[in-house]
Every structure is written in structure tokens, then in C-alpha cells.
Amino acid sequence: MHTFALLLLFSLTSFAQTNHDRVTNLTTIKRFAFGSCNDQNDKQPLWNDMIKQKPDLWVWGGDNIYADWGKSEAIDRAYKIQNAHPGYAKFKSMTPMIGTWDDHDYAYNNADGNNAFKKESQRLHLDFFDVPADSPRRLQEGIYTSYQFLGEGGQKIKFIILDNRYFKDVDPKSPMLGEAQWQWLENELKNSTADLHFFVVGLSVFSPTLPYTEEWWHYPKEVERMQKVLKGVKAPVLLTGDKHFSSIFKYWGQLEFLSSGMTHTVNRKAWWYIGRKYPKTFFGLSYGQIDISWADTMPIIKMTIRNATGRNIHPTTWRWEKGNWH
Question: Who contacts 298 (Cβ-Cβ below 8 Å, separation ≥6)?
Fold first, then answer.
């Protein structure tokens, strides 16, 4: 009877854990997964494979739900539908989650900082991640933040969550991130002692441009500023989404893993054109997985695109040496 009571208490305690608790209690990261473009009303076949892979962390890359009706009520309803999905609910109960947003979960297609209900949208986003009511993030404008965890040998791994929606097209001098977020980012990196940096961004940053898509390259000064900010940063990796296909590439000297299309992907007619610009590309439903190992304090990362059947697509290993990824 005593044993049963202890088991019941442990079960209830585990069940009562919030995502914030799981993130706070997370120490070592050897594997994490990430993805974007997930319509809560579509079939979601990837969660079962993620459960089998047992990543230490899940990173939402934006468009985590689709609520395109221009009302905060639609966003709230979409999050509730997503949280009720059985596969996702099981995965969330066992996996700490962090992440950013993009246009469809922030408001509507291509929404910018002029969105009238962006403060309410921010509240709903933070609710989705179980961010405590007394968190400073509840008071700031924009969802940007950072997290630091340890690698297997005690190395520091930093995740920097950027917000390319809340301030977009509001400040003419900083039309993508806004000056307040830029200053925060520059200070965050200036004081960073991390050995590996992951930047989580809704829109791909240095990637080749495509017609009919939103691009950082629409704001060249923002791209140039990001390039300058990343100089001297140890082992930077960009994790991006939005484009409805997945690709691993190094462009303008920066390593980027674009993982997009968890429930729907780009039209087949565009595959040939996109494939010419993005050589290591996958057009099926997928998510990204990264395994981290170390040679002393130098990180080695294995990137792979995974589909619903558990197939590894374009597995690529990168080693940080002499201030660059090789």
C-alpha cells in the first residue's frame, strides 16, 4: 500500500509539471529536434517518430499553428486544438519546449508590427509555452529571449530566440528586429561565454532568395547587421523555417538549417527551381534533428532531416575549427 501511494504521488507530480518546469530542470543536451509550419487542423504524422527519438529538447521554429482570421480568438482556439492533439500532447508531456513564432501563429499571413492585437498574441504565445505569469517576458514587448544549457562535458550551449514579427516594419532604421531587440541581441552575444550558439528565427536569414516569399534580404541593412553581429561569435548556427521545405546549407559563410513543412509542403511545381538554389533539400513532411558531441570545447554537430517513417535525409556533420564550420 505504501509503495502504491509513492508511485501515485510520483505520477501526479510528474503530470503536474509544466513545460516551464521541464525547461528549467533540463541540464544536459546531446540531441534536440526542431520544426515549423504545423497546421493544427491537418494530419500530424511526425510526433510518433520524435517520441521514438527522445530528443532532450524540442524547438518550435514558427508557424506553430495557423490562425489566419485576423482575430486573437482564432489564435487561442488554434492553440487549444494543437494542445489537444494526442501525439503532440504525449510528446509535450515528456519533452521540454522552447521556440519562436512567425506570421501565421503571430496573426495572419505576412503580418508585421502593425498588428492591432500583437500584445494579446504575445500573451497567448507565452501561455502556449507555460511561461509563468510573473516572468519578465510578460512585461516586455516582443517574445525574444535566450536559454543556456550544458553539453555532455559541461560545455555551454546557448539558444537565442529572435522575434521577426513584433517590430517588423515599425522602426524604419531597424525594420526587421527593431532597435530594442537589436541592442538586446548585441549585448547578449557580447557577454556570452557559450561554446555553441543556436539562433532560432522564424524567417530564413542568409538563404538564397525565392519569389513570393518573405526574406531578410528585403532589408539588406538588417542582413549586414546580422553578419557583423555574428562575427566573433563561437560556433553560430541558424535554425529557421517558413519556406515549406527543409534544407541544410552554408551561405554567406553562415551555417543554416531550414526545417519547414511539418504538415504541408511547397507545391511540386516549384521543386525543380528550389532544388537548383538549395542542393540539400527535402520536400516531404519533415523535422530537423541535431546531435551534439565535443572535441574538448569544440562542438561537432550532426544535422539530419527526418521524415515520418524515421528516414534520415541529407545527414551532414559539421565541426567547428579555427573560427569556422567545416
Answer: 195, 235, 319, 320, 321
